[in-house]
């Protein structure tokens, strides 16, 4: 749980004159002496604007200010509009967004930043209620550090049908990735199971006991220091492209978590992996027609690509 504050201000009553701060605080707010002492020690108690000590004595009429910590649910959806989050399509069944870097799809443990779900709620969009509370309507995810196109279900029917489509791998998920060096062969398939890294909860790795993971790639451009790839995901594991490219010894440029060269990243002014979800194609859950949506490279990735092209 994370904390916010509940601020309380009152005057010390006559009956508590001369009492120690922690004792008086406990009596005024129905707290144990130890809990009251913890608040004082944490600097959450002020007497006439000055930080109190436990042994200070209360004087009648003194202004007492207390900042009580309030636990908040880390999975609570916070309605917050996100700069740069674009709406590519909106109808009764789906909403397709262009997610910027630095935005999570939905709240999760340890994440305190903006979310796609929070933006949509804040902007007044109605999304499906299926799924866990913090990720209602979510049928796919993109990493916080990955930008690009994704779809969210607005109707319950759309949620069910899109979930099935992703589960049965009938959705075309196309990414562009700039990787270090030149993959050999220039086009191919990586079929290697992925599981959590043995030394980190936040990293993943190719593991024999991992979940089946299949990535298809082809080289679009080959330059002196890096190659631009088009990647088709057959499965959708967390960090799949990043893990598979690192396993080939060609990590995504700027992906320091998975072994990218920090010197090259600095030269390109990249603060994240060069990875972008460029196209998403699927059968529309309402009309049954095939639809496809695209997202252009954001400025940081476009700049890095131009520098790489100029250095060829």
UniProtKB/TrEMBL annotation:
<keyword id="KW-0694">RNA-binding</keyword>
<dbReference type="InterPro" id="IPR050188">
    <property type="entry name" value="RluA_PseudoU_synthase"/>
</dbReference>
<dbReference type="Pfam" id="PF00849">
    <property type="entry name" value="PseudoU_synth_2"/>
</dbReference>
<dbReference type="Pfam" id="PF01479">
    <property type="entry name" value="S4"/>
</dbReference>
<dbReference type="InterPro" id="IPR006225">
    <property type="entry name" value="PsdUridine_synth_RluC/D"/>
</dbReference>
<dbReference type="GO" id="GO:0120159">
    <property type="term" value="F:rRNA pseudouridine synthase activity"/>
</dbReference>
<keyword id="KW-0413">Isomerase</keyword>
<dbReference type="InterPro" id="IPR006145">
    <property type="entry name" value="PsdUridine_synth_RsuA/RluA"/>
</dbReference>
<comment type="similarity">
    <text>Belongs to the pseudouridine synthase RluA family.</text>
</comment>
<dbReference type="InterPro" id="IPR020103">
    <property type="entry name" value="PsdUridine_synth_cat_dom_sf"/>
</dbReference>
<dbReference type="InterPro" id="IPR036986">
    <property type="entry name" value="S4_RNA-bd_sf"/>
</dbReference>
<dbReference type="GO" id="GO:0003723">
    <property type="term" value="F:RNA binding"/>
</dbReference>
<comment type="function">
    <text>Responsible for synthesis of pseudouridine from uracil.</text>
</comment>
<dbReference type="InterPro" id="IPR006224">
    <property type="entry name" value="PsdUridine_synth_RluA-like_CS"/>
</dbReference>
<dbReference type="GO" id="GO:0000455">
    <property type="term" value="P:enzyme-directed rRNA pseudouridine synthesis"/>
</dbReference>
<feature type="active site">
    <location>
        <position position="143"/>
    </location>
</feature>
<dbReference type="InterPro" id="IPR002942">
    <property type="entry name" value="S4_RNA-bd"/>
</dbReference>
<protein>
    <recommendedName>
        <fullName>Pseudouridine synthase</fullName>
        <ecNumber>5.4.99.-</ecNumber>
    </recommendedName>
</protein>
<feature type="domain" description="RNA-binding S4">
    <location>
        <begin position="19"/>
        <end position="76"/>
    </location>
</feature>
């Amino acid at each position: 749980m994370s904390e916010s504050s509940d601020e309380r201000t009152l005057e010390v009553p006559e009956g508590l004159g001369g009492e120690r701060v922690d004792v008086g605080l406990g009596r005024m707010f129905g707290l144990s002496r130890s809990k009251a002492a913890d608040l004082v020690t944490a600097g959450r108690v002020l007497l006439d604007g000055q930080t109190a000590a436990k042994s200070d004595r209360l004087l009648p009429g003194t202004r007492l200010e207390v900042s009580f910590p309030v636990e908040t649910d880390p999975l609570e959806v916070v309605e917050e509009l996100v700069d740069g989050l674009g709406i590519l399509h909106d109808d009764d069944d789906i909403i397709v967004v262009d997610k910027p870097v630095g935005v999570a799809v939905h709240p999760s443990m340890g994440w305190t930043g903006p979310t796609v779900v929070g933006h949509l709620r804040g902007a007044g969009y109605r999304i499906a209620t299926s799924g866990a509370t913090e990720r209602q309507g979510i049928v796919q995810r993109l990493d916080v550090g990955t930008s690009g196109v994704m779809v969210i279900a607005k109707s319950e029917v759309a949620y069910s049908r899109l979930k099935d489509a992703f589960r049965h791998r009938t959705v075309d998920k196309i990414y562009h990735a700039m990787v270090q060096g030149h993959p050999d062969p220039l086009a191919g398939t990586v079929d290697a199971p992925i599981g959590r890294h043995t030394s980190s909860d936040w990293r993943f790795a190719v593991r024999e006991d991992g979940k089946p993971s299949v990535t298809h790639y082809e080289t679009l451009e080959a330059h002196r220091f890096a190659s631009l790839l088009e990647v088709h995901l057959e499965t959708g594991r967390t960090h799949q492209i990043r893990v598979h490219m690192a396993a080939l010894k060609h990590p995504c440029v700027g992906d320091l978590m998975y072994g990218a060269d920090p010197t090259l990243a600095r030269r390109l002014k990249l603060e994240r992996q060069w990875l972008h979800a460029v196209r998403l194609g699927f059968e529309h859950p309402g009309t049954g027609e095939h639809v496809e949506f695209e997202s252009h490279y954001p400025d940081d990735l476009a700049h890095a690509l131009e520098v790489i092209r100029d250095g060829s």
